[in-house]
Amino acid sequence: MIFKFLKLIVSLLLIAFIAILISETEGNTKIDWLGWGIEIETSYLVLILAFFSLILIFLDRLWLMIINIPSTAISRRDKKNRQKVEQNLVKAYLLASHGEHKQAALEARMINKNILDKKLGKIILKHADTIDDLKNENDNKNSDKYLLSLTNEKNTSFIGYLALMKKEKDLDKIYEYANEAFKIDPSSEQVLKTLFLAAIRLKNFKKALELSENTLLKNLFPDNQLNIILSELNFLEGLNILSKDNKRAEKYLTKCLEFNPGHFQACLNLIKIIKGFSVRSKSMNVLKKTFFSSPNYDVLIEMVDRSGSSNSGEKVSFAKKIINNNSLSSYNKIYAKVLIAKFSVSQEIWGEAKSILETIKESEMPKEGFEILAEIASSQNNTNDVRTYLKQAANTKVGFGYLCKSCGYDNGINDILCPSCNDIGTISWGNNYNQKQSSTSIGIKKIV
Fold first, then answer.
1. Model confidence at 356: pLDDT above 80
2. Are the C-beta atoms of residues 181 and 158 closer than 8 Å to each other?
3. Distances (CA, A) of 144 to 105, 150, 163, 165, 171
4. What does the pLDDT look like over 213-227, one tens digit per residue?
5. What is the pTM of this model?
């Protein structure tokens, strides 16, 4: 506006300067037109022309200003409306992000009044009404119809599928809507997590494994929990194709043990299908890594069978050497001693079993250890010791197992879902399973 005003002033000054310059020229100017004639001094003629030029310019500007009054008023109104829309949008976003959906819906109605795109305004208004329906759990059919209509528009299809996914309670439908939303926007962490968990609950392990390749998934779970989930997914897929394709099954089972070296089910299945050179050596390495991570009796038996020992004494001697391996953690060493003592009893080498258990402090002895001591005492017909050991077994709070970090349930084996609380990826090897975990649940009981 200022630039235009300055331009006008400069133009007028230029005309005035030229007029003054010409007006100083001596002489007369004669004009003949249709029989009319006039003769006037050139200086006066120039001044008259300059004056009329200024009048014409002024009238032109005045006319432009008059005819632009409506558009100027509309422009000011639109600018004011845009400011209102922007303010309402920001407020609605902030309210929605803090869970104030009802207040956000009110702001959406204000946006509808001021927005220029009436089609978009109708969508916003209908969305606000639908939010009220969803919160009040009323008119579900109408809200479903509206949300489905959003999926038909390119610009709103993701929002439609996202809302349907969050609203739905049926697991198959949740998976369907999450999958469609993921196709549109694979970068949505909410959609990725929902689709991943829904695939697991629907036992679509192949899809879950496919999604596990997405790097965003690492940000959505604690590292330990994600490793448990990925380990179980690879184990279940390997188990699923074990009878059809040993080579691919070996790949999945090996991957399972990479995420969780202590997965004894994967270990016991893998050693049956390992092929190639040094099968015995490879199998023994797999067994040792698993046993050191989570001592297991069946794994111990497999190790002994592959040791080349010919009699009970040699077998027990081999098993005892495992205790001294530095790869065993302090609490795993305790349970390893219990398992080796159990094996010694199975070989009827009672004295060796008792001497192994006597190296464990009474305060650290798990239930199984006291039960083995009772069995040894029973073999010696020592009823008093049997009673004492069984009483200690019943009262001890020390134990080992595959425990759920959410509810403390001892599942007995690795599993992707806790049978007790239905949490995903919370079962892992640990001790003190008689005491429920005091920490907050890290699992996912809900999908969305």
1. yes
2. yes
3. 17, 10, 9, 11, 16
4. 999 988 888 888 999
5. 0.70
* Tokens standing for residue 221: 């779970």
pLDDT at 438: 40
Report the greatest alpha carbon distance in the chain. Answer: 155
Q: Yes or no: say if 440 and 424 are a contact pair by the CB < 8 Å rule.
A: no
- Quick: pLDDT tens for 136-158: 555 566 667 777 877 887 877 88
pLDDT at 284: 94
- Percent of the chain beyond pLDDT 90? 44
Pairing of strands 400-404, 427-431: antiparallel
Give residue-wise pLDDT tens across range 131-140.
655 555 555 6
* Number of other residues whose CB lies within 10 A of the CB of residue 316: 22
Asked if the model's pLDDT at residue 163 lies above 90, the reply is no
Cα(first)–Cα(last) distance of the chain, in Å? 55
Residue closest to 200 by CA, chosen among 226, 182, 219, 223: 226
pLDDT the model gives residue 266: 96
